[in-house]
Amino acid sequence: MGARLAPAAGRLGMLIQRESQWACAGGGAAGRGARAARRGRGRPAASRPRGAGGGRLRAGVGGPASPARPGPGPCPERPPSPLQPRHPAGRPWRPSALRCPFRVAGAPRPVPPAGTPRPRPCRCPRRRRALPWAAALRAWSSRCLRSQSRGRRTWGSRGRGRGREERRGPRRRRRTSRCQRRGEPGSRAPGRETPQENPGWTRSWLRQPSPVCPPAPSFWGPQLQPVAQSLAWSPGRRPWCGHWAAAAAAETGAGTWPVTGPLRLSLHPHCPPRQPISYSGNLPQRRERRQAEPEQSDGEEDFYYTELDVGMDVLTDGLSSLSPASPSASVPPASPRLELPEPRTLSSLLHPLALPPVPVLSPVAPREARRGDDACQGCLAPTRPEPQPTTVRTCVPTPPSRLGASPRKPRGDAKKCRKVYGMDHRHLWCTACRWKKACQRFLD
DNA sequence: TGTGCCGGGGA
DNA sequence: TCCCCGGCACA
Q1: How many angstroms is C1' of C7 away from CA of A408?
Q2: Cβ of A219 < 7 Å from strand C?
Q3: Coil vs helix vs strand at A277
Q4: pTM (2 decimals)?
Q5: What's the Å distance between residue A173 CA and nucleotide B6 C1'?
Q6: What is the pLDDT of residues A138-195, one digit of tens each?
Q7: Under a CB-based contact definition with an 8 Å cutoff, are residues A395 and A302 in contact?
Q8: Does the C-beta of A351 come within 7 A of strand B?
Q9: What does the buried/exposed string (b/e) look like for A354-383 if buried means 16 or more CB atoms within 10 Å of the residue's CB?
């Protein structure tokens, strides 16, 4: 299984790397092309403007090797990952062609000097957590590229196309070494001592696995399973990820956080990529500060948990007060869905919650009030009952069946600006209605 | 036939 | 980005 996965993973890493290079070169034109293709009625390809790098042949692909493109050569040594096949027992470890997708078959392999200790793979869950397997492959491919081309200096390479993975290179590498230094299970560097071997370690709760963690889902790779096991939450706390949460849950006996995807928590603003956990620092103070500070809602928190401040009876009362013919029924109420959002895909995570904002008609309309002809829109519109803002903050995932079924939205029952104001008062329409777009005032 | 709005295009 | 409009789907 692993032996079959490794070549595919290598090729995938190469594809990801190339794609990211191209995206940096001609992302704008490519995006326009993709949007046009999505519409299905775009201009013919011959008439589309050819952006910088979007349509032309990429330099370095098929042509002479450019300086930025790595040529064939020895790949730097890299510890084998559990995704890749292990070498036969008894043979000295040497870098394999499978480990570097840019290594040309037939090129001489770099032979480490005899007696070189084989580096142990770092299975630190903190390192693996921030990287799902595809991103890990990409990061590793870019690492392989950089270190192959120019060595360590290339971490700080300039360029507009530098991605986040590239910018975080040194930090991540440092974290790796920290993991090895700390002596976590599986990430222990040879010769390092374990906490059991050294009783001078005081923060043992950081390194112990959480006793309340559920078994990891089976579809997670062997590297990501410790990640799932380290996710925990407790009521009233932020479900920040990693060992903090696991340790906090272990201390408070709290429940487990339902894991829906590896990226979900790694994108949290308080995750280690932005706020590296330093086990030797003042972690208890940090935790206390987190407990002390109120649950400030910065918007991003909504993606991680649902906060309910009202009971179901209040909700049902509010819903029953809406008559079926009431125009306010056109405004989608914040449906009290208690279940967590569905497992997110990578693309949905990169574009979180692309839902249109629920329009709340207020006398201070954001933009319409500034316009002279629309100055009284906010005065006329409140003749309709305004949707009462509730404290229910939910994630309302779009039903996938509606997305894939028809490209056109089914027409809602709500009256639009045209019907409400008529053609005579077209200046009272919302902007979208005037432009023959989807009405932004009376949403379905 | 009226309406909603998608997609394209010009400024 | 703003603005307009052709044209399609739907009630």
Answers
A1: 14
A2: no
A3: coil
A4: 0.21
A5: 48
A6: 555 455 344 333 333 333 333 333 333 333 333 333 333 333 333 333 333 333 333 3
A7: yes
A8: no
A9: eeeeebebeeebeebbeeeebeebbeebee
